[in-house]
Amino acid sequence: MSKKIEGTEKQNQYQQKLQKIRNQCQVATKKIRLGLLEGCEIKISPKDIMYIFDSIYALTNEVGNAQAYKNSTKPQNNNRVEKIDQELIDYFQEILNEFIADIYQRLNEFSGEKESVLQIVSKTYHDYKAYSYWLYKMFYYLDKFIMPSVGTTLCTTSLKLLKEGYFDKCNKLILNTILQFIQETRKNGILLNKQIKQLIQLYSVMGSKEVELKYMKEIGEYDYICKKQEDAQRFYKEQFQSHLLTETSKFYKEEIDNKQKFTTPEFVNWGNSIFKLELSMCIECYPKSQQAIENKLKMILVKDQAARLVDSPTGVGYMLQYDKTEELKQLFSFIYRTKECITHIAKAYQNFFEQQGQLINNSIEQELQQIKDGRQMHEAELYFTRMLEVMEKAQNILKNQLQDEPEIQKSYSGAFMLVINKNEKSPIWLAIYTDIIIKSDKGVNEMETDKRLSKIVSLFQLLYQRDVFFRHYQKFLSNRLLNQQIQNIQLEKQLLQKFKGETGTNVLTQLSSMINDIEQSNRFASDQQINKNTKFDLNVFLLSQGCWPINSIQDSIIKPLHIQHVLENYEKLYLEKHNGRILTWCFNMGQGELIYKIQAEKYYLNVNTMQMIAFLIFNQGVSFSIKNILEMTKIDKIDLENSLIPFVCMKIIQRDKQDIEDFSDENEILKLNMSFNNRAKKIKILPNPKMQPKRISKVKEQNQEELQQMEQINKQREFVVDSQLVRLMKSKKTIKHHELLENCQQMISIFKPDILFIKKRIENLIEREYIRRDEKDWNIYHYLN
């Protein structure tokens, strides 16, 4: 009985001490609330806080010791101690609930005024955090030693009470207030009140299951720190961000509808201002939603509007047409926010320059009267000069306004590739243009030379029929290499090296061999010192058979006595050095200079070898019949006619017939004009295609030659495609039809084979038993070993 009375007295003592703690807390919380209400410094000393802390510590420690003693005798009876601990926890919650009820009542008084709601919620949330922090310091011992057994903390309890007793009740009011201020900001273009940040912070922490409450010295505020961001982030997105995005979408869609009459530059300027405003709002008030807001704006302002902005009457086409480069740059930067929309700019860019290129294709024939450096420009030179001007403009825009964007770079290549290859003459014209550029390179510095060659290569890169280009290029290269006056070995090597970077073919090997032949010829002549003779200067080019574009070799021509000895001497020296080789003289290819003396005047005539042979006959007499010349030289009649016409035109040789094209009478007498006189002492007598007679047989011969060339090119193409198909089949063994077609096209750079051509070659390989179709699936091929 005495023990029971003793236990009751103990409990009474505990309750008295608990009430004393309550009284101390009431005094302290009154001071805290007064300081918070007046917005001044809280007048409570650390000593008062420590006194409450010590009281709670002493009570819980005393109860704990008593409980430990009882557990040693009756471990099952510990309800009283738990009750004391719970009473302290309940009292902590009671103090907070009183504060929450008070601030909720204050908010209800001004629920219809958004300015007041903003002020009150911001203030009360700040005060509640401060109030909770001071209580946390008083009850810290509970948080450290009692709350872990409950499974929570005082700070988490504080936040939970605020959510249940305040936030859940006024969530809708707070959200609407925030959204109203945001909408007003968007309408006015100025951030009206930064205090909404405090309201938004509620949504950042209310979903947290576990928090800490700390005093942030750097900003002088109290704040909840979430320990598990996933829960808080999920709540923030569901309760605030989703509503924010919905209102954002609704607001700006209405704004866009009202701005349909804006020009593209006006819309871009407006859109940029919106991105700037929204970014500042995000940074200032809701940084967690910055990415989501930016993505929503990109969708509404950029992705949904890109096609309209680009294709509008003031869009890309207009900007390119009238050089609105700065506006184009701004449009690109605006649309570049959503990279997938760059496709619209790339398409418009390509369409514009396709049209510009097609204008050149259509108008080139009307512009052939252009004069450059005192001469009429060749249509090839005019065409590619115009095309390069447009390409340079396109490149400058691509580099300076469009940031060398890869997709637009493809559009650049696609536009000019389409335009240039629409012109069937492009391969031969490019060969002619290259020839003109190389011949005009004398006196140009290295930097300018490299620039010119790079332009040629840039055009070459766009060609589909590169094999046709090389066929013509080889002829022009031959003429340049065999003409010492315009010969430039280093330049030819430099250009050839650039071509090798773009394509690797047997044609390039042939071109390299041609250059190598000239270098070896020069070295041999220099080593043997055989190019000088008192009566005849000889320069010989040793051409490898099969590498040079030689259609026919006329080696049956009778050599004039003036040069026969020199040629025989050269043959002897060469064969001594290169035993077993065969030399064949190509009299239809060389050039030379004749010294023509008449009436005490001396003229230097630039002629080809066959002209030289024919004209040297006149050293034996003043006049000869055409038949005599044919018999004495064995030159083909047509070649003889072409050789003599320039002499007739220059009045060096006279004839009775007025029609210079008529050589039908072989008995006609040609005689030297003994009274010939010309102010120019150096005269170019080389056959000119414009001087040559218009022979039907010659036209047929040219057509036949062109057909033969195309037939050779087609055979070479068949060989190239066959070799690539076999190579693919050999490596893959088994391959699908579309994959075989795609890979074959990608592997061939010398020309662009179409799908039908490749299909025909596949059928041919099947017939020749290189490959076979799968018995079950005809879209699959197998390689036959």
TrEMBL record:
Coiled-coil ranges (or none): 653-716
Residues annotated as domain Cullin family profile: 425-648
InterPro entries: Cullin, Cullin-like_AB, Cullin_homology, Cullin_N, Cullin_neddylation_domain
GO biological process: ubiquitin-dependent protein catabolic process
Superkingdom as given in the UniProt entry: Eukaryota
PROSITE patterns reported in the protein's UniProt record: CULLIN_2 (PS50069)
Family statement drawn from the similarity comment of this UniProt entry: Belongs to the cullin family.
The protein's name in its UniProt record: Cullin family profile domain-containing protein
Species per Swiss-Prot/TrEMBL record: Paramecium primaurelia
